[in-house]
Design the sequence.
């Protein structure tokens, strides 16, 4: 069974804190993604990675960075959390190939920044 | 940039009835892929169905089928014999790159007994 796990389901942080969101997949997928989900806005791509140590900015990268040191793990970093980063964060992974493959999603991390 | 529009924020259907969720998209590409994802309350997002633009035949997965109109750039999802477990947020998504998906804002589907 395919599996994408995220380190926390719920997280509460204070403004200015450095926040790490971890995502791990066990499917040997090349591609990994971080999305942000807000009511009425759908999912918006923050960053994605198509290989170890490779990363590409998505639509809303400002205020975020990422790290992919191992194939199975993709981390999202909020260098200095702000209240407007309160949101649901979804990680996903997919195989790389000629045609776009199904993206498998984690359960999400609901982050509240106070 | 490609945009995906879901014009129905909320829809309601009775059990055993059929419902159609709308999706339109904007692209200048000829080769691309379209998806419907389902996000049940407090559960993980899963793929419902996918469609390759070069295929004229509409995709079908059990009770779920699509009406793909390439010229009109329309990609609607039909759910037949609706069940309580179909209640969820449904997202339409587009990609032409094999990487990131462009999602619509979602349609919340309520299924009533």
Sequence:
């Amino acid at each position: 069974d395919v599996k994408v796990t995220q380190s926390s389901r719920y997280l509460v942080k204070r403004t200015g804190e450095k926040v790490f969101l971890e995502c791990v997949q066990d499917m040997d997928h090349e591609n990994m993604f971080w999305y942000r989900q807000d009511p009425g806005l759908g999912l918006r791509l923050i960053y994605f990675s198509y290989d170890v140590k490779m990363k590409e900015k998505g639509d809303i990268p400002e205020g975020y960075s990422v790290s992919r040191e191992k194939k199975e793990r993709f981390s999202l970093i909020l260098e200095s959390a702000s209240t407007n980063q309160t949101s649901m964060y979804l990680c996903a992974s997919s195989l790389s190939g000629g045609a776009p493959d199904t993206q498998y999603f984690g359960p999400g991390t609901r982050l509240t920044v106070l | 940039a490609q945009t995906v529009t879901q014009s129905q924020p909320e829809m309601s259907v009775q059990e055993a009835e059929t419902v159609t969720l709308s999706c339109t998209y904007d692209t200048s590409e000829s080769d691309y892929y379209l998806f419907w994802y389902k996000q049940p309350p407090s559960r993980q997002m899963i793929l419902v169905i996918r469609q390759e633009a070069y295929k004229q035949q509409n995709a079908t997965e059990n009770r779920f089928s699509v009406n793909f109109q390439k010229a009109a750039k329309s990609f609607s999802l039909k759910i037949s014999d609706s069940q309580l477990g179909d209640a969820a947020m449904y997202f339409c998504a587009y990609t032409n790159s094999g990487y990131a998906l462009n999602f619509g804002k979602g349609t919340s589907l309520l299924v009533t007994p």
